[in-house]
Amino acid sequence: MNYPRGNDSRGIFRIAVILGGMLKNSADFPAQLDDAWQRLELLVDELATWSQQADSLVEYYGRLVERSVAELAVVGGAVWIPSPGRPPQRLGPVQARGAADVAVNDAQRAFVAETFQQESVADAAAARWFRWPGTDQSKRPAENRGSAGPPAAAVDDPAICLAPVVVDDRVVAILEFVIESTADVAQRAATERVATALADVSTDFHRVIELRVLRRRAAHWDAALEFALEVHRRLGLDETCYTIANRGRHFVGVDRLSVVVARAAGGRVRAISGVDSIDRRAQEVTLFRQLASAAIQLGEPLRTQDGDELPPQLQAIINRYHDTTGAHCLAVVPLADPSAPHDARGGSRAVGALIFEQFKGSQFPAAVLERMDICCGQAGTALANAVLLHGAPLSGVARGLRRFAWLLGFRSLGRFAGAALAGLLLVAAVVASLCLVQVDFAITARGRLQPTERRQVFAPMDGVVSRTFVQHGDHVQRGQILIELRNLDLEYEAKRLRGELATTRAELEAVQAARMIDGRDRRQAILHDAEIERHKERLVGLEKQREILQRQQQELAVCAMINGQVLSWDTEKALAARPVRRGQQLMTIGNVAGPWQVQLDVPDEEIGHLLSAQRASGDDGLPVEFILQTDPAKAYRGTVASVGMATVVTGDSDPSIPVVVNVDRAALSAPRPGAGVVARLHCGRRAVGFVWFRRLWEEVRRRAMF
Predict the structure, then answer these.
(1) DSSP track, 243-259
(2) 383 exposure class (CB count in 10 Å sphere: 0-12, 13-18, 19+)
(3) CA dist., res. 174 & res. 176, Å (int)
(4) Element housing 535 (H / E)
(5) Half-sphere exposure of residue 82, counting CA atoms within 13 Å on the CB side?
(6) pTM confidence score
(7) Were both Cys, which of 215, 230, 235, 336 would link to 348 (CB 3.0–4.6 Å)?
(8) Please, which pLDDT band fits residue 677 given cuts at 50, 70 and 90?
(9) Beta bridge partners of 558
């Protein structure tokens, strides 16, 4: 006979005692005992293994009750689980085949609730018995709990055996088994002992579950601590935002996380997880700003999975967001500034918002929502500190002075009053110098050197390039053929017209011959004359069509519009046998012998200073100094010829204004079209403090006004 090992030995010992009491008077006692041992041994082994694998109470106890009812001589079984703030919950009621469902009585509920609430379970470790409504004991559970065994006399109503599952002096569950009314005292004792043994086996399951929960919590808090340390490590605004976006996405477990910093005129997207640079004019970025502004104004998170009815304006934004991104779950959580005073609604001023996105699934899991709250709490404090430091005037100078004082050993202002006074005088002198000393103010911009006279060669119609007559660097004359195109439709139309002309002329000659033969018949002569006129009109129309077709065929030979040089690179390789569309650019020709100019892209935040200096210069023109990247050792001079009226945005570059600068052709030695240029546009003389710190001053004015 095989006996279970490990933690199940105590339960098997009790089962052995049960079997001895049940089968000692049987004639085939050894055979029955061995068969019962094997069945109970398999049951206990199965439940012990299942206790290590099950993930939930419902899953484990459902199988325990189902297998116990199937193997034991009981009518039914269930399990009671405590519910915080509510009555205990009864799970998995299972009845044997043919048995009637039995309801729960008040005495049983009272005993279960009292057992879960008591602090000491020393007296609750053994099983207890109850009888169903209609008997005196069901009305007096306290008297019944004083006995360790079943009632002495058999009763007509079914009886319940309740066995508590105890873990660390706590009742975590109660097993319930219902026996038949005809069961004798020995069968009731056996049921009680089996229930107690199964309760001991269930103790291991609860310890395994608690160990899993503790491990998950430890890993969760370790990740939360690591995220908090990373997010508070730096004080720079951009560094903090990107740390929140990238680290926060992995910590929370979402597909994408975006950080929006609140501003008076709306939010600004500072970081998106997995994205190095942000296109401010992209549709997704615009929707992020609108969603963050709405959440900040409402003062509460917005989640698309909640199913709440939203205002039509906000619902329209969310619908456009889903159509654009394809995300299934969205959560926009405003970040409160813990150091800011509370507003009229009792909440703190929002410093920004986090946008969590999930591209799979219909809703955020509970664990993700829990980590989302932790992420927002840490991110709000870190972002508020970074924004405060970023907006402080002369914050960089203050950090430099603090490091300088630390190197000199100044720890206390009272102890080193003389040094502090000297430092104040030094700061005053520096401020006065910044305001009074005048220096040259110049704006730096980049651009290209190009011939002033340039022409783009375009395809006059659809076709295929059949031949290229020029190469890169070739000099061409006005009217010279550059490219020859071939259009199969025109060729087909030309053949068709030639055929129709020949056919019409032959028909005309035949009618004229018939007119001469039938000249005496007046009626036939009139018909022939009408036919001759019709053929002549047709010939005139076909001739006009041929003239138009010949002009179109002549246009297939693309000619130069100016005298100049071919600037496009490797034209034959780029255009040979290539199909082109009407209006497609084929090559560029520039007059390199004529005047040259520099085309600059001036950032739009600098254009105000440029226009002010241009108005002050009058007719003299604004001076420009530039170098060529092909020859950086030599500097050239020019004057501003024109300033563009509109802002231009190309690709991922910042918005800029085109500015044209005239240059002296004689001063250029071997200029190359398209050469890179770095230019300085001189805008007069300004205070050195303005020249050095104008960007900071403009940012302060912008924040003060908006």
Answers:
(1) HHHHHHHHHHT-SEEEE
(2) buried
(3) 6
(4) helix 522-555
(5) 17
(6) 0.39
(7) 336
(8) very high
(9) 483
